[in-house]
């Protein structure tokens, strides 16, 4: 059996008694997800990407806009969060109509410009399983990422070096504020993240890992 993370592999062994499980990491197209050389990062801008008809994304965005965003605004009143993804729920659309600091795009053909123009990529998820490909996409584009532990579950990343992890509204807000206030720190976090993704999680690298696992199975 193939799992997409060590955590999922451990779950299969522990909960289902499946011993022969191989974990192959999630990959990303590092040629497609690259920062544009002419891209302009907007100050005090945040972005979230994900289908808004998926419950964990809806819950995460509600959590961010209701509990985290007000804390960020106390220090950075002009902060703007852009939420990119299909089928936004009605109350989110209503919020965006009342609040210029909440921008909702709905479905887009290409998420890259939205990631490229943002200062910080946020992943405030509290529920859900699997791995978050969106994080690797943002990292490949050299964006600084702030995530909850659950949001980054299954990704073998180093907190403080390649990603910031925050699990309370206060911690999340402080992490976001710190990156918005310190562009050099945000750029360094983004560069570290991009280097890690390009070296270990590009499709070529992941494909080789998967191919090796298949060959080992065929050899018995």
Q: Your description of this structure?
A:
The chain has 220 residues and is an alpha/beta fold. The protein has 2 domains: 1-26 and 202-220, no CATH class; 28-200, Glycogen Phosphorylase B (Rossmann fold). Helix content is 46%, strand content 13%. The strands form 2 sheets. A 6-stranded parallel β-sheet has the order 5-4-3-6-7-8, sandwiched between helices.
Fill in the keyword field for this structure:
alpha/beta; 6-stranded parallel sheet; Rossmann fold; 2 domains; single chain; 220 residues
Taken as a percent bin, the fraction of beta residues is 5-15%
**Strand segment count:** 8
Strand order of the largest sheet: 5-4-3-6-7-8
Number of domains: 2
List the helices and strands and how they pair.
Blueprint: E1 2-3, H1 6-16, E2 22-23, E3 45-49, H2 55-75, E4 80-84, H3 90-98, E5 102-106, H4 112-117, E6 120-123, H5 133-140, E7 144-147, E8 164-165, H6 169-181, H7 183-200, H8 203-218
Parallel strand pairs: 1-2, 3-4, 3-6, 4-5, 6-7, 7-8
Helix pairs in contact: 2-6, 5-7, 6-7
